[in-house]
Amino acid sequence: MSIEIDVLNGDAGWAEAEALFDAVWPLHVLKKLPWGDVTFADADLRVLVRDAEGSVVCHVGLFRRVITWNGRKMHAGGIGGVATRADARRRGYATLALSAAIQTLKDERSLDFALLFCEPHNAPFYVARGFKPFDGEIYVEQPGGRVRFVAIAPYVHELRRLPLKGVIDLNGLPW
Fold it and tell me: Which residues, 6+ apart, have CB-to-CB distance to 37 below 8 Å?
């Protein structure tokens, strides 16, 4: 089995990731999800995993943002839009893509921590890969203004620091 992992510019990578998103979260499924009506940020970078045929089977979006944690500015690396095609699941693609994403954020050497949001059924996957639940409040921007984000739970991963409690303001759209 041969696979390829690419880290692409967010806009350029979207052309290849869009079909995967449509397959994983078609509109009729998206409407039923607790986060289906949330407006999300566009990724700065995209990790794409391709199978032996060259098809994109997995995606992880990367975001960089100056956030506020307990009133203090910090540099966060966001992880979002983690998606694996249904027929490619349980083959380790998401683990590979997530590892590449974390390594990309670490290699930048300018980010304090990584932050992602996930549904409860996905939490064990992320916890097993070093993420820890964030106990506190998250604020984000939405088209109607600043809101407390409660649609999906926050998890953090240490890059240089590990904020586990308090208040985080993403100073923008969630990822």
Answer: none
CB neighbours (10 Å) of residue 54? 9
The count of other CB atoms within 10 Å of the CB of residue 55 is 14
Counting Cα atoms < 13 Å in the Cβ hemisphere of 61 gives: 26
pLDDT tens, residue by residue, 82-129:
999 989 999 989 999 999 999 999 999 999 999 999 999 999 999 999
CA atoms within 13 A on the CB side of 173: 15
Q: Measure the CA–CA gap between 83 and 57, rounded to whole angstroms.
A: 8
Confidence of residue 2 (pLDDT cuts 50, 70, 90): confident
Which residues, 6+ apart, have CB-to-CB distance to 106 below 8 Å?
159
The encoded tokens of residue 174 equal 């969630």
